[in-house]
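Consortium newsletter contribution from the modelling node. Members have asked for a concrete example of what our holo predictions look like. Here is one, prepared for the S-adenosylmethionine complex that several groups have been discussing at recent meetings.
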Amino acid sequence: MTSTRSGPFAAGDPIEFLQFGKAKPYLVVLKEQGTINVRGHRFPHAELIGLEPGARVTSPQGEEFFLVRPTLARWIESMPRFATTIYPKEAGPILLYADVFPGARVLEAGLGSGGLSLALLRAIGPSGRLFSYDKRDRSLQQGAANVAQWFGEAPSTHTIREADVYEGIPDLDLDRVILDVPEPWQVVPHTQHALRRGGILSAFTPSITQAHAFGNALRDSGRFADLLMLETIQRPWKVGRRSVRPENQSTPNTGFVTFARHVAGKGEAGEASSGERRESAGDPAA
Ligand SMILES: C[S@@+](CC[C@H](N)C(=O)[O-])C[C@H]1O[C@@H](n2cnc3c(N)ncnc32)[C@H](O)[C@@H]1O
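And here is the predicted structure:
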């Protein structure tokens, strides 16, 4: 699998041209033939195959670059996309706050460009299972292609379904459900049978009104507790030899991520009978 491969570069590997404190990294997928044009500096693909990561190469104009395999974050930021992808700034918190663990059974919808799928597949590891739903052909194709490009092949832990998640969730015994669809509140009723108790439901929403509607659906269901909604703000800094200052281009607001834990609803098996008070997302004081 490309993401875990070490050793010399091979055709099909994503690689990056780096410089220290100069231009931005340049990402390209290695091919058997052809020429790479790094901002006017040309390198034949064939000459890079077989080089070790970290290799130093010099262009015909005398410019030096270092070659490495990109991080998953960089691949997600640079890979071809049709639908907007969830960027590392949100994918990182999703993995930890949704507590996506090795071996987990996870559903995500929609697949889109496959950005979040990549982060989830890496987190669940070889013993986990990821189900990715989408209802658009183009997303199904682009998402699958981006995932396969990164791993070198379609991972056996990944099941992609053409499905409308608003209609229902056919996959059961899920540990986590992660949504990136316009109306995540439509999915809340389907989690009752598909998401394990104690499991976590999370949604990325570009707008605060969507996040609010989702939070209210969780509250109204009476089956969720520990509601957390957050916005991640990332501020990159430019580190020069004499000055250190924020990058001119600031990262815009991309959206909000909401998390809640699936618990027993009223009258469901598992409800405490002792009258003990349980906090839930339905707390009317909130
Ligand atoms: C913003 S993209 C998802 C991006 C993806 N999370 C990523 O990181 O690359 C939203 C996707 O949801 C899909 N979608 C929208 N409504 C859906 C539904 N009801 N069921 C399944 N997929 C849906 C769209 O086709 C689109 O591909």
